[in-house]
Amino acid sequence: MNEDSQATPEQQQPEHQPPPAGGPQFSPEQAALAAGVRDLLGDDLLSSGLDAGGALVLEVTAARVLDLLGWLSTAAEPPVGYLSDLHGLDSEETMAVVYHLFRRGEAFEVTVKAITPRATPRVPSVTPLWPGARWPEREVMEMFGIAILDHPDPRKLLLPDDWEGHPLRKDYAYPADHPYLAPDPLHEDPATAFGHAGEQPGPEDAGG
Amino acid sequence: MAAPGLQTEELIVNMGPQHPSTHGVLRLVVTIDGETIVDCDPVIGYLHSSLEKIGERKTYRQFVTYADRFDYLNAVGNELAYVQAVERLLGIEVPPRCQYIRVMMAEMNRVASHLVYFGTLGMDCGATTVFLYCLREREALMDLFEHTTGQRLLYHYLRIGGLRNDLPPGFVEGLAKFLGYFPKCIEEYNDLLTRNRIFRARMEGIGVLTAETALAFGCSGPVVRAGGLGYDVRRIEGYAVYPELEFEVPTQPYGDAMCRHLVRVEEMRQSVAILRQCLDRLPRGPVNAERVPRVVKPPPGEVFERVESPRGELACYLQSDGSDKPYRLHWRGPSFYNLQALPEMVRGHLVADLVAILASIDIVLGDIDR
Fold first, then answer.
1. Which chain A residue has its CA at the smallest distance from B321's CA?
2. Is B239 exposed, middle or buried (CB count within 10 Å of its CB: 0-12, 13-18, 19+)?
3. What is the ipTM score, two decimals?
4. Which end of chain B lies in a sparser environment, N or C, as judged by fewer CB atoms within 10 Å?
């Protein structure tokens, strides 16, 4: 990157403009869809907003997520029926399963987050709607410890069968001999790091 | 299957994880009745390296080189998905020359990846020669990559807000020369493999997956396009400079293994067309955006960024909490979803067809296990 520019005043300006007062700026299509979801779910629709790419983000209680996804994929006009991906999310206070839906063959995206309490995380399986949810839901179960209710095949997917703990949780305890717990040589005293007494490490390589 | 009065029973056979035609470390637990496949259960995770967790511990800039390592035959595509996601969070626009070079690199990588696919498909079907021809042309592409980035497989060439360096002298001439003779090479491969009667007899009518079923399984890329649906993220999302370029999205009607093969052959021709247009239009100018902070700290937010990899829809989910490391990074590998549909494709087929069907999906285990 251009190192000379980093001290210029422009550098200090925030690149991101905070959303204007009055909430996110929905497009007419998104506003209509959000209104339809509010009619369907009422108070179970926890929030609606936009992400950095301009996609509609809907947060709902996990108990109603199947209703919402079923409505989006069939009853909504036009339907938002292609499930691109689903994955877990540990937000410290709550857990969530995030569904990325698209209108088929279009860039119109709806992100649905099924919010569930961290103590007893439970989310219904969406395999009745999309058979392709089978593997990613298995991954969510093993990586986050979120119980996927009525999953047809709740075995571990990527991890060994005897693995303990859920690695993508924020409070995951690493095994005592894990390399992450060893001191980081890059952050040690340069005089002793890497075993080179007194030798300076090379110029900082931050990948720029 | 059996003659009247003869008792048969199902047998469970392991294929892999060390089988040469499993393209890496994939284990298939196959239930067979005689030579017929009753069921197939892919067992994955042998290459799992927890890259998503690593992403939470590395700064945004540091992770670019890890992104290479998901789908190692498509390093540029991975970098593209990741840096576009970070740039979207930061609100950065990269200069046009950078966009063009990114597209060129992505298309070169697509051709190189399809060449590996073409060669290994031949190997899996018993035609070993075509592999050598494919790698001959791939070598020319690898040399161009090495000339530009210093690396032959995992390039670490794209940076947040730009590129590591501009194109070196001689690159444009080298690529133009390659594009001059490569279409003839595709014909040569077709003579060796695609038009071969034995090969066609093996590939036609096996592993049928309709576009409708494919989409329900989350499949994308040539697996969907072979079923007649022109589903291509380059068209849908229109990222980088793809909207300015003319190219076709090839489709085939029947959804079988041969159709997937023909789609990829045509995609190589389309990539050549895209590369020629890029060379003609390559603008002058800087390759790095100005005002990219040295320490990348995107504002809190999230983004789901899709690109078209040689295998299908590749996506990167990033959530930022305002710090210099991603709060959550998730990778949507196209092979992960495409492989999931394998049992649908192979039930009722012969064991020997399983290898050909698997090769026709063109999986990369680094993309699946992450």
1. A91
2. buried
3. 0.88
4. N
